[in-house]
Amino acid sequence: MTIRLAVFDCDGTLVDSQANICRAMEMTFVAAGLPAPPRAAVRRIVGLSLAEAIRALAPDADAVRMAGEYKAIYHQLRQDAALDDEPLFDGVAAAIATLAADGWRLGVATGKSDRGLAHVLARHGLEGRFVTLQTADRHPSKPDPAMLAAAIAEAGAAPAATAMIGDTSFDMAMAKAGGVHAVGVAWGYHDRDTLAQAGADVIADHADTLPAMLSRLLETRV
Questions:
Q1: Number of neighbouring beta carbons within 10 Å of residue 50
Q2: 11 among known catalytic residues
Q3: What is the rounded radius of gyration, in angstroms, for the C-alpha atoms of the chain?
Q4: How far apart are CA 131 and CA 204, in angstroms?
Q5: Bridge pairing between strands 105-109 and 5-8
Q6: Torsion from C-alpha of 16, 19, 22, 25, nearest 10 degrees
Q7: pLDDT for the residue 216
Q8: Which residues have CB under 8 Å from 60's CB, separation 6+?
Q9: Is 9 among the residues known to form the active site?
């Protein structure tokens, strides 16, 4: 029996975390004596590993040092209960439950840290849903396919039976580099045209369409 694996991005795909990311990034830039980047620019780099995201926003900055500062700021905001909730997007919980009931193995590949991802999954009661969790703590930034390769190996799947589900061009490029199906979602931080140009095989407009979309995709292409 073919093992089917659905790997989800986190920020912009499972949860809406843009308010917290933008706030922490603004505080990080101010602490470094730099003008805060526009929120539209920050949303465009969500999904990259932290140092890569900062380099994209400020090429001449000390991205490694600022990445450390960002983590400290984000953690302190969480300790102070000053962060907004990171709600699941509408229909995501039901889609995950349906996929699991249909026999899919589920994973996450995210630019978040282990700690950040664990917090999100615990917050929404999703800790036991995923058989593989890949984060920026152990892998190079998207679109490098290392996260996907590790997820596939841990799940015992094959690229042809694996779908990468994400909201950014980085997710789509990673899927293509990893030889898996690229499934874009239209509710995140990159628009449909950007996803299509990055190689999305299909684009979901709502999470409740994902289970049937993924099944059709694998039926026609495995």
A1: 25
A2: yes
A3: 17
A4: 23
A5: parallel
A6: -100
A7: 93
A8: none
A9: yes
